[in-house]
Amino acid sequence: MPVLHTRRRALRLLLVLLAAAALHPAPAGPAAADEPGWTAEPAAGAAATRPYFYLEGAPAAVLEDRLALTNTTDRERTVTLRGADADDPADAHGAGSWFSFGAGATVTIPPRTRAVVPFTVTVPPASPPRDHPAAVIAAEDGREVGVRVHLRVSGPTLAALTVEDVAVRGRGAAAVVAYTLVNRGNVTLAPELDIRAEGAFGEVPDPGPGPRAAPVELLPGQRVELTEPWPGAPALDRVRVTVTATAPGGARATATASAWCVPWRAAGRTGLGLLGLGGTTLGALLLVRGRRPRRKPADDGARGGPPAAPGTANPAPAPEHQLTGASR
Question: Whose CA is closest to 61, among 135, 126, 117, 133?
């Protein structure tokens, strides 16, 4: 019975494969990427989870909050905490130095456990009233996680900014409008930009769309250089570009710049061609002038005297008497 033999043979083959798999298990797939193993975030408030800390107080105030550390692994974790100044993390006297974690500067978190660590921020008495962006830094084995802190010292606020160094760079489709935004006030600004262009020989397209949000958030005292692509820049025109920046709180600034949009490469080729043509014309004129026959000197008759007799030499000219006043 061939069908029965076929089934028995397939069964024996299946048993052999199962035995081989038991003795030689298949190699494990590629290891998963190394997971962080722990997270750091603001402890949930009374309302809901917070994406960052927000602290505000007057000079000399002591502000309090809590950081949540969660160990998601099956082994113990040891995390160290510190504050950092967002403007200059290396500044030992910046807002990062205002943070204190007390005994919680080093936290040991058991497996599958969440630890809540309180900390304080002591505002120096002479601290100016403005935003002082900072962060809480949690670190373990060279890995760091920063939790943003919006820290504000209360007091009179000033929203002010300037637009500087406006310029048109590049030509044609590669043209860009370059400019610099500077936060001159004591509050963080999210400016809105409006860039307009005018041509001397007619209308030109504006660089980019109409009023829009700037791609950056300006911290107090921060200076940022930006560029706006201008693919529709004219090929030949004198343009005037105006950059206007506005921000909540009454901050407004405008700066302008003028520039020639000239295809310098084509103009250079044209100039060289004209220069070559001029040189060729000048050389031709000099050559024609050099080949002209010289004119013979005029005879005596042409000079007004009597013609010389044939075969005789020209008489010597009569001596000229000097006017001495003596009688001759």
Answer: 126
Domains of the chain: 38-153 (2.60.40.2310), 161-262 (2.60.40.10)
C-alpha angle with apex 207: 204 to 208, nearest 5 degrees? 130
- Nearest Cα to Cα of residue 135 among 58, 40, 45, 57: 40
Q: Is the dihedral of CA 300, 304, 305, 307 positive or negative?
A: positive
CA angle (119, 127, 186) in 5-degree steps: 105
Walk along the chain (328 residues) and give the pLDDT tens digit of each residue: 444 444 455 445 444 444 444 434 433 333 333 456 899 999 986 656 889 999 999 999 999 999 999 999 999 999 999 999 987 877 888 899 999 999 889 999 999 999 999 999 999 998 889 889 999 999 999 899 999 999 999 988 899 999 999 999 988 888 999 999 999 998 899 999 999 999 988 888 898 888 999 999 998 889 999 999 999 888 888 999 999 999 998 999 999 999 998 775 544 454 444 455 555 556 555 555 555 555 555 444 444 455 554 544 455 555 544 444 444 4
**Paired tokens of 125:** 């008495």
- HSE-up of 131 (CA within 13 Å, CB side)? 24
Distance CA 67, CA 119 (A): 8
